[in-house]
Design goal:
alpha/beta, globular
Length: 209
């Protein structure tokens, strides 16, 4: 994805804990991204979203705009759409992503739906980003975050984006990912550093080889 500005990476923490394992993975990603000279920022979903998705047919005002005034709209347009990459950091809750993470994606529907006056432009701008997933769980078996990986992969496919990687850390207490022998914090830092440089391959039967 080409852009006239330095490539912007939005690191989004979808955890209610400011000092938890998802936040630790996010901070490591931020260190790597800034070391590489990227325009990277870290945000918590809770600071920009207070409500679940509602029925848009009842929720829109006379101009077609969303009536939910919790800061999500400004964040979506000013930060997410302007970003070239998204690193989502979420704990594994009940073998899926957190409610914050799910609501962040659900609320996009307000602006993608055809009932939104500028939906065509939003659908165009939502495409082509690089996305990555960083997860933390108290359990360590290999498929613990598989449903989240699948959801992010399908999101990338649907939006013509590039899903470039997954980092998983295990910790049964806050900050516990630092003791994971697989060194997820080092992997997260490398992901941030290489976010826009990592090779991406998503072949189809008719792809040129």
């Amino acid at each position: 994805m080409t852009s006239p500005h330095p490539r912007r990476l939005l690191i989004l923490v979808a955890s209610p804990r400011r000092n938890g394992n998802s936040a630790a993975l996010a901070q490591a990603t931020l260190r790597g991204a800034r070391a590489a000279g990227l325009d990277a920022s870290l945000e918590f979903v809770d600071d920009h979203l207070r409500s679940l998705l509602r029925d848009c047919r009842q929720c829109r005002d006379e101009h077609g705009r969303c009536r939910i005034d919790d800061g999500y709209s400004d964040f979506f347009f000013d930060r997410f759409l302007e970003a070239d990459g998204l690193a989502l950091c979420s704990p594994v809750y009940w073998y899926g992503m957190s409610a914050q993470a799910k609501a962040f994606f659900d609320r996009m529907f307000c602006f993608v739906a055809r009932s939104y006056p500028d939906s065509a432009r939003v659908r165009q701008r939502i495409q082509g980003k690089r996305v990555a997933l960083l997860t933390a769980s108290e359990e360590i078996y290999p498929s613990i975050a598989l449903s989240m990986v699948h959801q992010m992969q399908e999101y990338a496919r649907y939006t013509h984006s590039q899903f470039i990687g997954v980092v998983h850390g295990q910790g049964d207490q806050r900050g516990g990912v630092s003791d994971d022998p697989r060194e997820p914090l080092a992997s997260a830092e490398a992901l941030g550093r290489e976010f826009f440089e990592r090779a991406h391959a998503d072949y189809h039967v008719d792809s040129l080889r």
